[in-house]
Design a protein that fits this description.
Belongs to the LysR transcriptional regulatory family. The protein is of the alpha/beta class. The protein has 7 helices and 10 strands. Strands 2-1-3-10-4 form a 5-stranded mixed sheet, with helices on one face. The radius of gyration is 19 Å and the shape is elongated.
Length: about 210
């Protein structure tokens, strides 16, 4: 049983799934996770084997390790008429934006970090549906914000362009968590070792110049 943040699609997720699928009589079930509090309960009551979170869990019964550091990118459609001129915060601030409506405290922290340069009047479209946000970025000249792993996953299909401006947003750390008693499970510890060793390969390789 695996839980993780909504929209978390690490590039090397296939490594984990392949390892699991090769085990006889094993079924894989994935659920979205929205709060760190529910993650603690899932692990405490042994309702999950692995939990990926965007905030660390501080619990003596839980082993919590940093797994990935994720960037947040400003993105537009590949055919955006001004994409080549969007090279500074000042030029970006003149554009109009999408806004993802969510109660997730980590996403809200990233959104609030743009207050210094993003005029709220320039937020032209808001939605609590991330797929709708993606569609608006893809079909209009609006700018949106995506985690780098999601950009890397969908940009070949949706023809999105990452705007190359450094330090727009704080990085997000993804943590891998499991119950301390699970450290006695040879298969699970082997899987975690593989994931931790492959996490460098899981960092998305995106091309700002596309």
């Amino acid at each position: 049983m695996i839980y993780g943040p909504p929209l978390f699609c690490s590039v090397n997720s296939h490594v984990m799934i392949n390892q699991l699928c090769h085990q006889a009589n094993l079924q894989i079930e994935h659920h979205n996770l929205t709060t760190t509090e529910s993650a603690e309960e899932l692990l405490a009551y042994r309702q999950a084997d692995l939990v990926f979170t965007r905030m660390p869990i501080t619990n003596r019964a839980t082993i919590c390790q940093p797994y990935q550091t994720v960037q947040t990118l400003a993105v537009c459609r590949a055919g955006h008429p001004r994409r080549e001129t969007l090279t500074s915060v000042e030029s970006l601030a003149q554009e109009f934006f999408t806004h993802y409506i969510t109660n997730d405290p980590v996403i809200q922290r990233v959104q609030q970090s743009s207050i210094a340069w993003l005029n709220p009047r320039n937020i032209a479209f808001r939605s609590d549906s991330f797929m709708t946000i993606l569609n608006m970025i893809n079909k209009t000249d609006l700018i949106g914000f995506l985690p780098s792993y999601l950009y890397d996953f969908i940009s070949p299909t949706m023809q999105l362009h990452a705007i190359n401006i450094d330090n727009l947003f704080p990085d997000i750390t993804i943590y891998i968590n499991y119950h301390h008693a699970s450290s006695q499970n040879h298969f699970l510890t082997e899987l975690i070792t593989i994931l931790m060793n492959d996490r460098e390969a899981s960092r998305p390789q995106f091309n700002h110049s596309e």
